Amino acid sequence: MARPWQIQMQDPASPTMEMIRSLNDTLNLIIVAITVLVLGLVAFILWRFRASRNPEPARWSHNTALELAWTTLPVLILVAIAFPSFRLLYFMDRAQEADMTIKVTGHQWYWSYEYPDHGVSFDANMIQDADLKPGQPRMLATDNHVVVPVGASVRLLMTADDVIHSWAVPALGVKTDNVPGRLNETWFKPLRAGLWYGMCSELCGVNHAFMPITVEAVPPDQFQAWTERMKAEAPGGTALARAEEGQ
């Protein structure tokens, strides 16, 4: 999660976020270079063409070579930026070979999760201040975590049952709208074990600020044990497990 006085992005925990941070750093370098160039030109013009040095102002108003330069150079910069940007957009669009799928449904004001590959489903609500345990961050901790195995490509199918929500976890490089009546798709791949936090990032009503997300990446054996425990603890089995048994 974000730290006090943090300037940079959160430490990347997925390949997508690594690419986002790399592109952001590259764009910042380009922005700084352009800013320094423009400020340098302004300073040079103020010094070179000051009134004391040029009591008689120049009469010319056009310079074809200069106008071609300041038109062509920005176009080349934009083209250079476009290629890595499009590559990143294509990379983060959807998982090519997903190891598992999670369906995420936004509600006013909580999240529902379904693991169709594992027969697990549950709701996740924010833990109230009075119920927080030591180490749990206020307004970010949830009663149930989205648990995934480390190194697995996780496909996310996003929807909502009332208004538009947005499932966003910065450290994983994920931010996708949950739109009623349609499915959006995105993915992430946790690179290491840990906890990552996010929030609903689409204004969805009076309790919009109370829809946190907690994602926990664990080793594969712990993930398998978690799925078995979730199915055992669900009253009468999960809806997905009951549906599978009925088939």
Essential attributes:
single chain, 247 residues, alpha+beta, Helix Hairpins, Immunoglobulin-like, 2 domains, 5-stranded mixed sheet, 4 helices, 10 strands, 24% strand, disordered C terminus
What features would you describe in this structure?
It is a single chain. The protein has 247 residues and is α+β, with helices and mostly antiparallel strands. The chain has 2 domains: 15-93, Helix Hairpins; 100-246, Sandwich (Immunoglobulin-like), CATH 2.60.40.420. It has 4 helices and 10 strands, in the order ααββββββββββαα. It has helices at 15-48, 64-93, 220-233, 239-246; strands at residues 100-107, 110-115, 120-124, 146-149, 154-160, 165-169, 174-178, 184-188, 194-200, 212-218. The strands form 2 sheets. The protein has a 5-stranded mixed β-sheet with strand order 3-2-1-5-8. Strands 4-10-9-6-7 form a 5-stranded mixed β-sheet. A hairpin with a 4-residue loop joins strand 6 (165-169) and strand 7 (174-178). Helix 1 packs antiparallel against helix 2 (64-93). The relative contact order is 0.16. Mean pLDDT is 90; it is low at 237-247.
- The name CATH uses for the topology of the largest domain is Immunoglobulin-like
Radius of gyration (CA) equals 25 Å
CATH homologous group name of the largest domain: Cupredoxins -  blue copper proteins
Estimate nothing, just give the exact number of structural domains.
2
Q: Which helices and strands, and how do they pair?
A:
Blueprint: H1 15-48, H2 64-93, E1 100-107, E2 110-115, E3 120-124, E4 146-149, E5 154-160, E6 165-169, E7 174-178, E8 184-188, E9 194-200, E10 212-218, H3 220-233, H4 239-246
Parallel strand pairs: 1-5, 4-10
Antiparallel strand pairs: 1-2, 2-3, 5-8, 6-7, 6-9, 9-10
